[in-house]
Design goal:
Length: about 475
Amino acid sequence: MAVLRRPLAICDVNRSRAARFGVQCQAYVEVATLSTTAEKGQGMTPTKPTSAAGETRRDTLTIVDNRNGRQYEIPIKHDTIRAMDLRPIKIHESDFGMMNYDPAFSNTASCISKITFIDGDKGILRYRGYSIEELSEKSTYPETAYLILHGELPTQSQLKEWTYHITHHTFIHESIKKFLDGFHYDAHPMGMLISTVAALSTFYPDAKDIFNPESRRKQTYRLIGKMPTLAAFAYRHSLGMPYVYPDNDLSYSGNFLNMLFRTTELQYHPNPTLERALDILFILHADHEQNCSSTAMRGVGSSHVDPYSATAAATAALYGPLHGGANEQVLRMLLEIGAVNNVPAYIKRVKAGEKLLMGFGHRVYKNYDPRARIVKRIAYEVFDVMGRNPLIDIALECERIALEDEYFVTRRLYPNVDFYTGLIYQAMGFPVTMFPVLFAIPRTSGWIAQWEEMLLDAEQKISRPRQIYLGYDLRSYIPLDHRK
Ligand code: CMC
């Protein structure tokens, strides 16, 4: 049989009626003979060539390597093939074998998860099967965090116990204040948060016991309880104001507002509308499956480091302007645009590739981000209490133009969660630098759930991607005086 020097042809998804692909399959008759060791891919089986007629449905994918005419049949499960099943595809026995190249993991599933479901085309987000719309209407952040971490909504007594433990882990070691004091007055609060979360690992060496469920539970209480305190202390430090200690009689979001904004009053009474708005925003940000920061949490956690160090890494990933730092950048962008009638000129620059329209676009959502819809509604509730943020008109004009413009329509760029959150945060009195911090606090529950799921998944190992090496081949060292 002639060896065909053509690219690899994915011959047929054998689940569908094969007739339209059958002719191509018939061109190759050599059958791959492969052993089925783990290294070569568990699921790969040598296969006989398929025929066009009378093919029955099989959950496999047939691949033809046109470099040598070999044909491979790979199992399909959950609409996915295992990358390791490609490894046996090789010309010579000594070859490394086939890999898939996927920079930025655009089409790679790195795990099996039961936490969060997103359908980006339909604009659907669910935690453990519950829609984000229903949770934001009926749940609270502590309850949603419980759901995300435990898989089920808590009973009354479970919620009571959970809330008790979270509330009783809000205090931080006094020495953390000394770290904060070392930061410059204008230090970005995300930098302070990343550093102080990492520092928690030094206070809780028991956190290294990551395969002990009791230890994991304890660190979960601590992380969810202490993140708002670290964030609020960072904020107070930047203002040069004394730190406000947690008030265990307040709700999770109410206590956070207390630690941020309390001045001379003996007891802080949060405004109920703002307290609930913040609680809903926390629900909306609690998890978002395998985003950049969750991937950092899983990747760093896969080395079996303690959860505080992994959370510091995840917080750092969130800080970037393409991820959780986008809310800060949206506000800076709206300020730069300055007036509604400047929007068309700004959009022109975006289309010319000079700028990004911050708060627009998403790797997964190719439809309106369902969180953005809810945020937009809450914005008006907050404005009713705090006064209308004039930047909303600029934001609405950006959205109006973008949703009609061919550039955004063809690329399926819609507002994401960060587009309107900054307007709410600003109306509530937060400085822009605090915006990513307000994302990090609730996302902590999602990070821990992702981390724990990774740890308990028997298939997971230390994260270690491959590369395609295109650098120099072996060359001889050149002595310094011979170099040009
Ligand atoms: N403004 C203008 N053009 C954009 C934007 C934007 N915000 N986002 C994507 N595009 C263009 C991009 O240039 C590309 O154009 P072309 O095909 O001509 O090269 C096309 O749309 C496809 O974009 P992409 O770069 O393949 O998209 P991605 O999946 O790599 O990036 C993203 C996703 C969120 C990083 C990106 O949309 C972006 O930078 N948005 C602005 C930052 C932002 O709002 N981030 C918050 C995301 S939601 C919160 C979170 O969960 O992190």
